[in-house]
User: Which sequence fits this backbone?
């Protein structure tokens, strides 16, 4: 079962990399702010992955939680910065 989890992880990393590299820079900020909900779902899946038996699965789940949290926080920071650009300066 651990081979299946590692295979899914490797495929997810490959697909995610391929999708992100195809996005033009002008669309990256709006897409990142919209991807926060998807990252929240990823956190739930990663937390569930930590409950699987086996040390490798628990560590991969922990790493997935950490990366998903970094993505969520980064997405909110980018969204906040983008929204500040449209506010009137005093």
Assistant:
């Amino acid at each position: 079962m651990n081979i299946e989890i590692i295979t899914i992880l490797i495929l997810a990393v490959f697909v995610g990399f391929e999708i992100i590299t195809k996005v033009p820079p002008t669309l990256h900020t709006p897409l990142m702010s919209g991807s926060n909900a998807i990252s929240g779902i990823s956190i739930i899946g990663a937390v569930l992955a930590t409950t699987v038996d086996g040390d490798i699965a628990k560590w991969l789940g922990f790493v997935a939680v950490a990366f998903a949290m970094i993505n969520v926080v980064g997405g909110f920071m980018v969204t906040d910065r983008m929204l500040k650009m449209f506010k009137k300066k005093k």
Q: What stands out?
A: The chain is about 80% helix and 0% strand. The mean pLDDT is 78. Residues 17 and 75 are 17 Å apart (CA to CA). The helical segments are 2-21, 25-34, 36-49, 55-84.
